[in-house]
Amino acid sequence: MSIKNLKVLHNELEKELPDWIKFANVLGEYIYDYGLYKKIPAKIVISLPTQLYFSLFIAMGIADKKFSINKQTRSIRKTFLSLESGRRIIYVDEYKARKMSVLALEESPVFEGEMLLKVKDGNVEFGIPEWQWLEKVIILDEEYDGIKNSIKVNNKKQLGLNDNLFLKSIYSQNQLNRNAFFPGDYFYLIGNLLDIEESLKEEIFISDGERGALQDFLYLNSKNSYTNGKLISSQKRKLDFEVNESTPVIFSDSLSYLKQKKKFQKNPQIIITSMTESESRSTEIIEELKIDYLQNDNSLITKDILNYIKLNEVKVPNGVELMGWR
Question: pTM score, two decimals?
């Protein structure tokens, strides 16, 4: 199934996905393809009648692109083979889930050509055979200089995507399992934290009888072992992470761009503005974007973007203005 076949809930009635959601999704796919994947630092400016939810639907398009990719077994094996001593994992068996540290990767003494992931569980060291990696191991984005003892995982922390019935109605179990092996920041979403966090929780989708929210697609905090993006306040003064210059940045509104643009100058960007904003702020951001375009050796890609949208059989909604360059 495709997210284009999702239904939205309105007054408890199921309705077709509106064009403006499909439009936002495909912009997310575009900035993923040309920014994160092809590493082309495109910038797209969109003017909307209202920007409510729009940045989240763009991020949803990026997330869908990741979920829909069928990672090859060799890619997963390569990820495991690159694990270094001290890297943290979650080991899941029929009894419990525990965080533990990687000790080393060794050849199996039993099966020729198979590898063992050697880990430390308390005072016990044991090997996880290669055939169990996909089923029982979740790689965490944590590293330590020394080996730490294992700890029981907090019951409040969700492990991967296996328990999400809504996502299971859209993606195959194989896609969800394999994506759980590749957590990371595939987009930076900048805006008003309170507004975004509230919008994430609303159950606005339905698929095969399963209700879902934007938070089912977007994993932006530590409540799940899987993450696919980073949420950043428009008021944040200093970043506490190293910016990956190929990661797309979604500025939820003009204020987010004006406040945070200097921290992401080389990143692919989607900048959302609203026709409801004050005249002074609209003037300010137009001048800022004009300077950005004229001071650098840029070329317009608006036509390319519109062709990409058309190829995906999506319409640009009425009242939307769009411009892109790189």
Answer: 0.81
